[in-house]
Amino acid sequence: MTEQQTVKRLDVTGEICPWPVILAMKEVKKMKSGDILEVITDHMPSTLNVPAAATKDGHQVLGSERIDDGVYKISIRIK
Length: 79
What we know:
79 residues, alpha+beta, Translation Initiation Factor IF3
């Protein structure tokens, strides 16, 4: 039997760098291996900076997509 994976949504809209990265990496530390973190941001540079920080820490970036006008979702699988 496999463990249940948790999907956590972190809304950092209205925040500019470096805050989305700081808040996302802080949340990642609370999560278990295999869990998914969805980061919601409206700060375009965060669509590059959050995945870069997650990858640097060994996590898997599942994707980054536009979900609304100027709003993006970054999905990260925790290592």
